[in-house]
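Bumping my old thread because nobody answered last time. Still need a sequence for this structure:
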C-alpha cells in the first residue's frame, strides 16, 4: 500500500528547496526524513532530494508508505444503516454535519453506528477512507473535520494545535450574562471526585480559553456564540457550568437536567480551515438545528 501526492509548486515557493516546501506544508520532520531515506521524492518525474531547488509550476511527487504514519490504515467498519451529511469536501479532507446523539467514532473493536462507520461505507465507492482528526461529543451536533488519507492527519493536527483551524459553537445556556461579550480563562483538569467530569482550577488543570458573545435571550436563558481557542475535554461545558451558565440538557454539568430535555444544546456551527498544502482558507458552516430556533420551547426546559 502506498499513497502518492503530486503538488504543483506555487510562486511563493519559487527557488526554494524541497525541504523548505515540506517544512512550509507542516510535514513532520520524521516523515521528511523517511521520504529522503526511501528515495521517494521526484521533481518533474526525475528523482530528487530534499536539497533539490524547485521553481514555480514544477511538479513535486511524493510517495508515502504505511511505516511513515502512526495510524496508516483506517479500520472503521463500513455501516450502511446510516449516512453522513457532507458539508464540504476536497481530495484530502471533508467536513461532516454530525447529528446530536450519534457517536463521532466507535469506542470498541467491531462497533458500528458512528459517523466514521457511516463515512467508511459512503467513501467505499471512491476508494477513500475516513481518518479521525476532530472529535465532537456524542451529544454535540455540527461541523466535524475528517481526513481522507493519513498524509494530512499530522498536518491537520498541527493546524488545530497552532490555532490555524478555528472552531465556533452555539449553545443555549441557563441564565443571563452581565456583559454581552467576554471570555473564560479558567484552567481545566480532572474533576477531583467524578471520573466522568472535568472542572476548573484542579491540581492537574491546564490552560483553557473560551470567548463568548450573547446572541439573544429569553426570560431565563441565553443563546451564546462560543469561540474555542484551546481543546480541553468538555471545555465549553465546563467553562459555562463553572461560571453559572450550564448548557441546557447537559447530564453532567446542568443541575436542572431532565431526561425530558431532547438533547444537549451545543452545536458546532462553523469551522474556519486552512487547507493542507495550498494554505487556502475555507469557512464551513453547519446549519443551526431547528430545535435551536424554538425559543419558546427552550424556555420550557
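Sorry it took so long. Here it is:
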Amino acid at each position: 500500500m502506498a499513497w502518492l501526492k503530486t503538488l504543483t509548486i506555487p510562486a511563493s515557493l519559487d527557488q526554494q528547496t524541497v525541504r523548505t516546501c515540506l517544512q512550509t506544508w507542516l510535514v513532520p520532520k520524521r516523515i521528511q526524513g523517511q521520504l529522503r531515506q526511501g528515495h521517494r521524492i521526484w521533481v518533474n518525474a526525475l528523482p530528487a532530494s530534499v536539497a533539490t531547488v524547485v521553481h514555480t509550476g514544477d511538479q513535486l511527487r511524493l510517495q508515502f508508505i504505511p511505516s511513515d504514519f502512526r495510524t496508516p490504515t483506517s479500520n472503521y467498519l463500513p455501516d450502511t444503516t446510516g449516512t453522513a451529511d457532507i458539508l464540504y469536501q476536497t481530495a484530502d479532507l471533508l467536513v461532516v454535519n454530525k447529528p446530536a446523539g450519534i457517536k463521532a467514532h466507535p469506542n470498541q473493536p467491531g462497533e458500528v453506528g458512528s459517523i466514521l462507520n457511516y463515512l467508511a461505507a459512503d467513501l467505499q465507492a471512491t476508494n477513500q477512507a475516513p481518518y479521525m482528526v476532530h472529535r465532537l461529543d456524542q451529544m454535540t451536533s455540527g461541523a466535524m473535520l475528517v481526513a481522507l488519507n493519513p498524509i494530512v492527519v499530522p498536518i491537520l493536527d498541527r493546524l488545530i494545535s497552532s490555532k490555524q483551524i478555528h472552531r465556533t459553537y452555539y449553545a443555549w445556556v441557563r441564565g443571563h450574562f452581565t456583559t454581552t461579550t467576554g471570555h473564560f480563562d479558567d484552567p481545566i483538569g480532572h474533576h477531583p471526585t467524578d471520573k466522568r467530569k472535568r472542572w476548573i482550577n484542579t491540581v492537574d488543570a491546564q490552560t483553557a480559553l473560551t470567548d463568548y458573545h450573547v446572541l439573544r435571550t429569553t426570560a431565563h436563558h441565553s443563546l451564546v456564540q462560543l469561540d474555542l481557542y484551546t481543546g480541553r475535554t468538555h471545555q465549553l461545558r465546563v467553562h459555562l457550568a463553572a461560571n453559572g451558565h450550564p448548557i441546557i440538557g447537559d447530564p453532567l454539568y446542568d443541575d436542572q437536567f431532565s431526561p425530558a430535555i431532547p438533547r444537549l444544546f451545543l452545536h458546532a456551527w462553523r469551522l474556519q480551515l486552512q487547507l493542507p498544502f495550498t494554505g487556502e482558507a475555507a469557512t464551513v458552516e453547519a446549519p443551526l438545528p431547528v430545535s435551536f430556533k424554538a425559543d419558546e420551547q427552550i424556555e420550557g426546559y
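The first strand starts at residue 3 and ends at 8. Let me know if any region looks off to you.
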